[in-house]
Amino acid sequence: MERGSPGASRPVEPGPCLSSLRGAEPAASASTLSAARAQPGSRVIAVAAVLPAGGCGERMGVPTPKQFCPILERPLISYTLQALERVYWIKDIVVAVTRENMGAMRNIIQKYQHTRISLVEAGETRHRSIFNGLKALAKDQPDTQLSKPEVVIIHDAVRPFVEEDVLLKVVAAAKEHGAAGAIRPLVSTVISPSADGCLEISLERARHRASEMPQAFLFDVIYEAYRQCSDYDLEFGTECLHLALKYSHTKAKLVEGPPDLWKVTYKRDLYAAESIIKERISHAVCVVMDPKQDKEPVDHFLEALKNELNDVKIESREPGQAGRDIQQSNLEQCYNFVSMNIMMSDFQETRKLLHMLEESNLSILYPVVVVSGEQKLQESLRQGAIIIASLIKERSSALVGQLLVA
Amino acid sequence: MERGSPGASRPVEPGPCLSSLRGAEPAASASTLSAARAQPGSRVIAVAAVLPAGGCGERMGVPTPKQFCPILERPLISYTLQALERVYWIKDIVVAVTRENMGAMRNIIQKYQHTRISLVEAGETRHRSIFNGLKALAKDQPDTQLSKPEVVIIHDAVRPFVEEDVLLKVVAAAKEHGAAGAIRPLVSTVISPSADGCLEISLERARHRASEMPQAFLFDVIYEAYRQCSDYDLEFGTECLHLALKYSHTKAKLVEGPPDLWKVTYKRDLYAAESIIKERISHAVCVVMDPKQDKEPVDHFLEALKNELNDVKIESREPGQAGRDIQQSNLEQCYNFVSMNIMMSDFQETRKLLHMLEESNLSILYPVVVVSGEQKLQESLRQGAIIIASLIKERSSALVGQLLVA
């Protein structure tokens, strides 16, 4: 069992960052948390998370295990870790990976500056991997930096879009009921086939739910369940809530979760995840421009850009200020920079900005210079906004350095 | 009940077309079909399809019902209809749409030149819509062009990626067993909650399956089931196989289906569908070039393009010939045209080709001219291939008419 670099509690993300980018205001989550704290008899809870990541992703039809598949050049699991890291009250995150992927995982932790991560070796099956993670948390000894939590969250490496809100709900429910898990309505009817492959029973869809992640447990409840459960359970079981019920006699509280909790399973899910990430990192644009420029065309351009990008947050900076902010990564939440240069026909400022962005370790940026034509300025500005919006939304690396005419 | 224009048996598609574009060779399917015909005692079967399309798509979180959501500017349902139309042995396709969407549906049929389609009014629920479709097929009268089929396929408007292969399997199984349906392994464990929202039972995932579409039935089996079933079934039921079992005592044969059968339900599914369609229409490229050009750079370019686009089929045409083929839409399966113009520095040929493509009613095309730089030709060709591949894969309309430098 090894420990990742502790580092700062909130890293500078080299890759696109999700949670902070889709209106999950820190304020909101903080208040929800204090609400949870304010529950009768509740106090600050020691919470850790276990993330089984030993799967081989055979259903994906790609050689790479799905949790390591790149999305915008960043491995899927890194988005999931980031989502958990942003929840400051999760003290430790224990990730179970196979021996052959241990090195790759260490590199991911280093490259994306993940913190609070401990690695354990994955088992043959999902349940065995989770059990290994729990064991690491259980031994409350000086030789490890881990200490036994009161509540443990179990999540999947391939569910990158988990939000603080649902984590908070399952943790609070676990504290009260001993176990809790997120559920979703069924999309298809579930049936049970007979031995000869014919329909035996079809279940009433409305009476059943899909059991999703995250789940949370009082540590002793789930750890005891794993200690007592049979080899058959460890080999063929898929459901932690079931183990808690069967071996710790704990009926899990079921919490309705959002659709984005779905599990990245097939190639199409990678496509969907990439589109969701692209959409989420398109919500903030930093427009860098000389304040001495005419206000009118600038406003016209920003208006057009807003029309092209739905609910986009546009902040503008002066060139020098933008540089400082980028270096101090005060613009952590922004992955889109537009340099507006209406009057001057040289690109000095733009070049400076590009250089600074390339130096910085912000998200993968695909800088493209857009030149407005002189005549019909208004029309060019609208066209420019359309082009910029599509560059932001599609992030095609093949266009790096192209000159596009608006 | 109204009938769409019969038209040609195989329309010129104005929109991207799927089945023909992902290696489902007519030859292959024909042989499979004759294999089915060759079954002991079997003959050509009269087959029709019913497509309930009355849903309002509340889960999608968008105002438009999901079956009408555009993908590359073409409504989702049109892809599904196209997939069914390509199976020549499906005689009639009955679509159930709500009264308010009847007009929109008629426009889709006309715009995308769908054939063999009949429209009926959708009911309040999925089962009622299907029942309406079956009634339309049941009345074997002179005043309708529909005649009662031996086997009826029931499919969803929001499962656009259905292939002839699985349709053939369910139809053959239905003929033998009376009913058949496609199934998939469960992705999540299914649980049944108690009244107080706690875990009651969790089902063993390996013993259950998700019931998907398409399904097929001997017409009399499913029609009788619908005639006899209760109002409760029609209101709250979700599973046709269940009705066949309960009211016609017919145990459906379950057929393992491919993952692409999944049902477009959430916004992320639209993202996934769009990516799949983009990928599928990127598999064929028609390179138009003057045969008098140097062979070597051309070959180098085509090689580079092949490296960028996985398993792409590249056919080359001379300018004049390409023009004729486009006009006669002999290139129906191709949505990607690259005009190579290495030596000449004017764009006359390219302009001609563009004009012809714009005139033709082929798929939405986003023509972009790529100019290779003079020096380091080899490198430019590689760069050009990278740019062209990304244009083909991403199809960004915002880049129309741009000049990109390789």
Could you characterize the architecture of this molecule?
The structure is a homodimer of 406-residue chains. Chain A has 406 residues and is α/β, with parallel strands linked by helices. Chain A folds into three domains: 2-276, Spore Coat Polysaccharide Biosynthesis Protein SpsA, Chain A (Alpha-Beta Complex), CATH 3.90.550; 282-368, Rossmann fold; 369-406, no CATH class. The first copy, chain A, has helices at 26-37, 76-85, 102-111, 126-138, 164-177, 219-228, 231-236, 240-248, 267-280, 295-308, 319-327, 348-359, 377-394, and strands at 2-3, 47-52, 70-71, 74-75, 90-97, 117-121, 151-154, 179-185, 189-193, 199-202, 209-218, 253-256, 284-289, 313-317, 337-340, 369-371, 403-405. In chain A, strand 3 (70-71) and strand 4 form a beta hairpin. Chains A and B meet through strand 8, strand 9, strand 10, strand 11 and helix 8 of A and strand 8, strand 9, strand 10, strand 11 and helix 8 of B. Strand 9 of chain A pairs antiparallel with strand 11 of chain B.
> Share of helix among residues of chain A?
25-40%
Q: Describe the biggest sheet of chain A? A: 8 strands, mixed
Tell me the number of strands of chain A: 17
User: Total domains of chain A, how many?
Assistant: 3
Radius of gyration of chain A over all CA atoms, rounded: 24 Å
Strand content of chain A: 15-25%
DSSP helix count of chain A?
Answer: 13
End-to-end separation of chain A: 56 Å
How would you name the oligomeric state of the polypeptide chains in this document? homodimer
Largest interface summary: A-B, 67 and 67 residues
Pick out the low-confidence regions of chain A.
4-42
Order of helices and strands of chain A: EHEEEHEHEHEHEEEEHHHEHEHEHEHEHE
User: Largest beta sheet of chain A: what is the strand line-up?
Assistant: 1-6-5-2-7-11-8-12
SS-based class of chain A: alpha/beta
The fold-level CATH name of the largest domain in chain A is Spore Coat Polysaccharide Biosynthesis Protein SpsA, Chain A
The averaged pLDDT of chain A comes out at 82
CATH architecture of the largest domain in chain A: Alpha-Beta Complex
Q: Going by CATH, what is the homologous superfamily of the largest domain in chain A?
A: Spore Coat Polysaccharide Biosynthesis Protein SpsA, Chain A
Class of the largest domain in chain A, according to the CATH hierarchy?
Alpha Beta
